[in-house]
Amino acid sequence: MATQPRPSPVLDSARGWVTVATAFVSMAVVFAVAYSFGAFFAPMAAEFGSGNGATSLVFGVTAACWFLLSSVTGRIADRIGPRPLLITGAAALTAGLLLTAAVERLWLGYLTYGLGVGVAVACGYVPLVAAVGGWFARRRAVALAVAVAGIGVGTLIGAPLAAALIAAHGWRQTHVVFGLAGGVLLLLCAVAVRRPPEPAQNAPALGTRALLRTPAFRSLYVATLLSSVALFATLVFLPPYAAAAGATPVAAAALVGIIGVSSVVGRIAIGAYAERAGHIRTFRASFAVLAGSFALWLAADLLAGSFPALVAFAVVLGVGYGGWIALAPAVLAELFGVRGLGGVVGLSYTSSGFGALLGAPLAGLLVDLTGGYGGIVVGAGVCALGAHLALRPLGRADLGAR
């Protein structure tokens, strides 16, 4: 049940920045776990004797779960705030990973890992984005950029840490460590988080049908869907691609970490730049960078998997990806307002759920059918270019959509 509106504290205040810090930690935790799956891929496939497509479906189910559930958790957060959702996410993360550590069949991992990690990310991501967006007006883009930089830090830390722990203790024990540590950190975030004040605007939040009828929302939805297919295929298969080209397991997993650290730079720098250049214009430019990065992976492929070229690809991809993730909530707030922002962001992110569900499994199927990774490189690049083109109609005229 929704609580009664409370007196509104001053926006852009110190209390808002506490929520930014909490959101940063929450996103770092859940994405450190989620985006470390590439390090678990090979040992899990080897133990279960499964193909690339079947193993990558674990991640596909997980990402689809968190993005599709985000439309639910976002609307719940609009009503009751993010704290109960963070507590739920902590329980789901710990239970899901402890159960995954004990499974004897891969299909059970679809349920334990997919639901456990998926629910945790759905509870620790969009509700916190909405909370940060509600605490700020003048500095919203910068605050959101700092908050979602936690995703990049989690990506940087998670995959190399998982690879090192797997080498020392095995993939099952690593899931236990991640589950217990992650659950504790999310509970601490639940203690610290603050619900944002009620927005001053009187216009009601747009419903799902009204949003889907606007050209601006449809353009954003298609672009996010296509870019997610490219991104999640990359996050799952870039480490095994690099390992097949001769990189060590830790070095291969570190490529995902490089994407993470460069995305942190991209989120903060591009978020600050967007305050001057305009959110929508900078958002489109981020997608252009994301699409252009795949030319570097293609070049690396032509150079027999050159590791320096793969590092360059990871850096450029991370910058474009960081700008996309940092600015998406600010663009949605600019187009549709902050009232009900959690529901709007959540609905938008369901497109990423479909992209994740398609991207990694289709990429794995391509590897199984062709025996190589060239199809992933080309296919992901085409999807990223399509995402950029889908945003071309998005402009200042769309501000009249509401």
From TrEMBL:
The chain crosses the membrane at residues 20-42, 54-73, 85-103, 115-137, 144-168, 174-193, 219-238, 250-270, 282-300, 306-332, 344-367, 373-391. Signal peptide: none annotated. It comes from Pseudonocardia aurantiaca. It is a multi-pass membrane protein. Keywords: Membrane, Transmembrane, Transmembrane helix. SUPFAM superfamilies: MFS general substrate transporter. Residues 18-398 form the Major facilitator superfamily (MFS) profile domain. This is MFS transporter. InterPro entries: MFS (IPR011701), MFS_dom (IPR020846), MFS_trans_sf (IPR036259), Proton-linked_MCT (IPR050327). It is found in: Cell membrane.
